[in-house]
Automatic annotation (TrEMBL):
Protein name: Homoserine O-acetyltransferase
Organism this protein belongs to: Gordonia liuliyuniae
Family: Belongs to the MetA family.
Function: Transfers an acetyl group from acetyl-CoA to L-homoserine, forming acetyl-L-homoserine.
InterPro entries per record: Class_I_gatase-like, HST_MetA, MetA_family
Gene: metA
Marked site (Important for acyl-CoA specificity) residue numbers: E111
Biochemical pathway: Amino-acid biosynthesis; L-methionine biosynthesis via de novo pathway; O-acetyl-L-homoserine from L-homoserine: step 1/1
Annotated positions binding substrate: K163, S192, R249
Length: 304
């Protein structure tokens, strides 16, 4: 079954061109089925790009998905038009009374700021607290993962000497979780961040298991035993050229950023990079939808 999205959403045309089946709100309303209600709190500056990347991964499932896009009311976006936000997004206050089967909280390019110095941190903490009661499972990505680990469990983040950027090899730790069903013992995934979290601090919570790590990039995946809190420090949703575009942007601004590691063929920045993480990205999101949401959520989310 497809992802249900507004007909005018820019991501729709992109996904249809890739032969990904999407459905309009009108057509979905004629199907006698309860779709999985998934919200996306999009904190990334290029919101249309992030929408498309996430919707692509969410589409790879037999379940029907109903998407609600959210943005923070306490921060004014400088890179996404007010028209786009007004047309396709809601704020937390708009949905705070609702229950969702799943929520994705994206990353944000603010890692070097202390959490309390982020202008929307009070709103963020309200949302994180709300997920405990109104969301079956929350998938936190990159800064979103760091923010949730800090708020819920007091796990700190640490600035690294050089940006962690590239496509890194990861291995499973041996901890058990349905979210890694079907994963290879070793797999690739992109990272792009200036800060890190420590596996020892995550394990010390007694509530969160580290599931996959990289010798070079650190923790990649962690989760609570009940699957209600998933933490992904990398970016399995990235397109093949996303790291290249970030590297070019930062280089043109004169920032001292490294060439993304293990990304360009032969480490040549003029070569065209290949997507070598797509399969595990799709598997991660399919497992999240199936094992953490569909198999666990009640027919009426308000009964949870």
């Amino acid at each position: 079954m497809p992802v249900t999205m507004p007909h005018e959403l820019p991501a729709r045309a992109i996904l249809e061109a890739e032969n990904i089946f999407v459905m309009s709100d009108e057509r979905a309303g004629h199907q006698d089925i309860r779709p999985m209600r998934i919200a996306i709190l999009n904190l990334m500056p290029m919101k249309v790009t992030t929408e498309t990347q996430l919707l692509r991964l969410l589409s790879n499932t037999p379940l029907q998905i109903e998407i609600t896009l959210l943005h923070t009311a306490s921060h004014v976006s400088r890179t996404t038009s007010a028209e786009h936000l007004d047309s396709f997004y809601s704020t937390f206050d708009d949905v705070a009374h609702q229950h969702f089967d799943g929520l994705i909280i994206t990353g944000a390019p603010i890692e070097k700021l202390d959490f309390e110095d982020v202008d929307y941190w009070p709103e963020m903490t309200r949302i994180l607290d709300w997920t405990r009661t109104n969301v079956q499972s929350t998938l936190h990505v990159c800064w979103g993962a760091q923010a949730a680990l800090y708020h819920h469990y007091g796990v700190g983040k640490y600035e690294v000497p050089q940006k962690i950027s590239g496509v890194f090899n990861h291995r499973l730790t041996g901890a058990k979780s349905p979210i890694i069903t079907g994963f290879d013992d070793e797999f690739l995934a992109p990272h792009s961040r200036h800060t890190d979290v420590h596996a020892s601090e995550i394990e010390a919570t007694g509530e969160v298991d580290v599931l996959a790590v990289s010798e070079e990039a650190g923790v990649f995946l962690a989760a609570t035993a009940d699957g209600r809190q998933i933490f992904v420090t990398g970016h399995p949703e990235y397109d093949a050229d996303t790291l290249y575009r970030e590297y070019r942007r930062d280089s043109e601004q004169g920032l001292p950023v490294p060439v993304p590691a293990h990304y360009f063929p032969n480490d040549d920045p003029t070569a065209v990079p290949l997507n070598r993480w797509r399969g595990h990205g799709h598997l991660l999101y399919a497992n999240w939808l199936n094992y953490c949401i569909y198999q666990e959520t009640p027919f009426d989310p308000a009964e949870d």
